[in-house]
Automatic annotation (TrEMBL):
Protein name per Swiss-Prot or TrEMBL: Uncharacterized protein
Region (Disordered): 1-23
UniProt biased composition (Pro residues): 1-21
Biological source species: Streptomyces triticiradicis
Alphabetical UniProt keywords: Membrane, Transmembrane, Transmembrane helix
């Protein structure tokens, strides 16, 4: 079975116009903010593990 060609390679359809500048700016800002959310999540999870290891060490080292 032959795959359907991509929209840019179809000769019977005109190419899609680029989105407006304000839409591009909004999408760029949304992508940037989403990246920051992933960074915050990673730091949060890393911090939780550090706290857990310190607590485990504290519990195991007491007598």
């Amino acid at each position: 079975m032959i795959p359907d060609p991509s929209p840019s390679s179809r000769p019977d359809q005109p190419p899609q116009p680029p989105p407006p500048a304000d839409e591009q700016a909004r999408l760029a800002l949304e992508k940037k903010r989403e990246r920051y959310v992933w960074y915050y999540l990673a730091y949060f999870l890393f911090g939780i593990h550090i706290v857990a290891f310190v607590m485990i060490y504290a519990v195991l080292s007491t007598k």
